[in-house]
Amino acid sequence: MSRRRGGRTGYLLLLPAVAWLVLFFVVPLYSLVATSLYDPTGSDFRGYEMDWAFGNYLDAVRDYARPLLRSLVYGAVATVLCLVLGYVLAYAIAFKAGRWKYLMLVLVVAPFFTSFLVRTLSWKLILADDGIVVRTLQAVHVLGPDGRLLATSVAVVAGLTYNFLPFMVLPLFASLDKIDHRLVEAASDLYASPVIGFWRVTWPLSLPGVVSGTLLTFIPAAGDYINADLLGSPGQRMVGGVIQSLFTDANDYPAAASLSVVLMALIVVMVLVYVRRAGTEDLL
Amino acid sequence: MRGGVRGAGPVAWVRRHLVLLLGVLVLVYTFVPIAVVVAMSFNTPPSRNVYGFGSFTLDNWLHPCAAEGMCAAVGRSVQISLLATVLATLLGTLAAFALVRHDFAGRSGANLLVFVPMASPEIVMGSSLLALFVATGFGGRLGFWTIVVAHVMFCLSFVVVTVRARLAGMDDTLEQAAADLYATPAQTFRRVTLPLVAPGILGAALLSFSLSFDDFIVTNLNAGTTVTFPMYVYGVAQRSVPMQVNVLGTVMFAVSIVIVVGGELANRRRRAVV
User: Fold this and answer.
1) Fewest 10 Å CB contacts: which of A43, A270, A277, B91?
2) Which residues of B touch A34 (CB under 8 A)?
3) What is the pTM of this model?
4) Domains held by chain B: number
């Protein structure tokens, strides 16, 4: 494809979108960081003063260490579960579905056009105390006679896994679908068992999809709080919910903003470490 | 085939199709909550405070607006999503053309600026915007328009990425042919380029609409006292859930199935023709 040289038209076409993103994404981030450094004793009535209060970050970590840690752990566990389920599904679609390939791919996306909140509410019903899942688990003694799923971390992680599954399946499928079948056949011609063939050929070639899928799942899952609110109890509170209520209920802007900055910093660090370990820096 | 290497019994069949079966099982799992939503739309709960199955009814379908405030919230959500979709699709499509068809300094910077919002947690984007609105004195004027502004922001990147992929995968020989046949650049664009990119733009618009319609986290922070449909559901989830919520869920599912399966069938026909 030939690209036209001379940037003027290009800049004009790009300008509105870039202006929108700068004004409503970049500038707000600056605003968030500024707010996080305000004098914490300020209030809505007296106004806030810039105080370079770096101590706000320490306070945020100390006061909300548990929800912070919980969000990262829930997000990570849900991501691993999504990877397992999503890999099976993406592999089946890419290699085994034949002429049903695109129909199956469409069906992966279809349920997720139905409201996120309505679907999460229906999990609340499925996992309810007198529901079929809990009864079955009680009957086979996985759960005690008074055991429950709602208001436990199991329900929250299950909800997160369900809700973010397509974010994992789509990039995995994109990667798997590109793999040249002849490579896998070559491995089996050279006496590799199917398991070895998968492990030495298919899996490494699908790594770009694994990396982008895990990132696309982990980031929103760690920031989510709807699943924790609807399926969990206060004991499963996630950091997103804390930030939300600090902003809108407590009106404690400096605390809310610093917690938000801390969350973002933690996620960025985790992502960078992960990408470096996976050896796929060039994907970003 | 009896006694053959691969065998023909049901066990052998399951074995041969194990991965596909597991994949279908995962797919079925994603539809379980949808089945519950559909069933609940025909349900009268045993009592107001119990969210469970009672008896069959058509009332929820006949009187969807009997749930107080729901229809108003849905109407507001539709307005917001339409506005956000039109704006995001327009700006995003222009930007995608710039990024694929033009060469200029700073292209990789622009690509990065488009990528980062998609990789940011919603709670961070939402709280940043709120911090900006509060700092600039819009804290008391949160509502319809601040929601639209926020939705355009997070839909934009998805539009750019979708349309950019379509444009990048497009062969420009047809456009060159049009130019060779003395079409003016404007004619070429309208008669050749636009129809070729149209499916990408349409896909981007549908994606925007559903992202915007379904958004809760960013919206909830920047909505003030305005209530969108997801916020309505969140609100009733803390008290008692009217079954009409499931009617709307079922309708959304049906519409999306018609759109995605219809689109896939149209694609299939196009592939068969070409």
Assistant:
1) A277
2) 131, 135
3) 0.90
4) 2
